[in-house]
Design a protein that fits this description.
alpha+beta; six-stranded mixed sheet; two-stranded antiparallel ribbon; Glutaredoxin; globular
C-alpha cells in the first residue's frame, strides 16, 4: 500500500507540472504574432469558396489540415473532431481542408458520418503557405485564424498532429493500459 500511495502522489505531482506547462505553452502560442494571409479560394461541393467565407458569422476559425482519404491517422483525428464538432462550433467556425477533390471528400465524409464542413486545397498553395505540405507530402494539424472588422485574415497559431498529441484523446486512454498503445494503428473499420 505504501508504494501505491507514493506512486499516486508522484503521478499527481507530475500531472500538475504538465498542466502548468500546458497552460504556459498555450499562453506563448497565443502571444505569437499574427500573420496576415490572403483570401485563398478552396474547392467545395457547391463551388469555389473563399477563406473569408468559411468563417461564416464568426470572427475566429479552427481549420484542420487533413492529409485526405488515404490516411487512416487523419481519419482517426477527423472522427474525433466530428464527435466534438458542435462544442467547437459554439466557440469558433470549424472546417477541414484536404488535398482530396470535393467529390471524394463528400463521399468519404458521408461514409464516415462527418458533419463538419470540408474544403479542397488541391488547386491552391494554401497547404504549402501554411507549412502543412513539404514536397508532395501533406502534413496533419490545424491552424487558427481571426478575421478583423476590415475583412483582413490573420493566422494566429498552428499545431501539428501525431500519435500521443493532445488533440486526439484516444492516445491518452492507451497510455494508461498496462502495455500502452502496443503498436496499435488506426484502421478505417474494425
Amino acid at each position: 500500500m505504501g508504494e501505491y500511495k507514493f506512486l499516486s502522489a508522484e503521478i499527481e505531482k507530475l500531472e500538475n507540472e504538465i498542466l502548468e506547462k500546458k497552460k504556459k505553452l498555450a499562453e506563448l502560442i497565443r502571444k505569437t504574432p499574427a500573420q496576415e494571409v490572403r483570401d485563398y479560394v478552396f474547392g467545395a461541393s457547391a463551388g469555389p469558396v473563399k477563406l473569408s467565407q468559411i468563417f461564416g458569422d464568426c470572427k475566429e476559425l479552427l481549420l484542420v489540415h487533413n492529409m485526405g482519404k488515404r490516411c487512416p491517422y487523419c481519419t482517426l483525428w477527423a472522427d474525433n473532431f466530428n464527435g466534438i464538432r458542435h462544442h467547437l462550433e459554439d466557440r469558433a467556425a470549424l472546417a477541414v481542408v484536404s488535398p482530396d477533390k470535393p467529390d471524394v471528400q463528400r463521399e468519404f465524409a458521408s461514409e464516415r458520418g462527418w458533419q463538419f464542413a470540408m474544403y479542397s486545397c488541391a488547386e491552391n498553395n494554401f497547404a504549402e503557405d501554411m507549412n502543412f505540405k513539404s514536397g508532395d507530402m501533406y502534413l496533419p494539424g490545424f491552424s487558427t485564424f481571426r478575421k478583423s472588422d476590415d475583412g483582413k485574415i490573420y493566422r494566429t497559431g498552428f499545431r501539428y498532429f501525431g500519435p500521443g498529441d493532445d488533440f486526439c484523446s484516444l492516445w491518452h486512454f492507451f497510455d494508461i493500459l498496462p502495455e500502452g498503445a502496443n503498436g496499435w494503428e488506426p484502421k478505417y473499420s474494425y
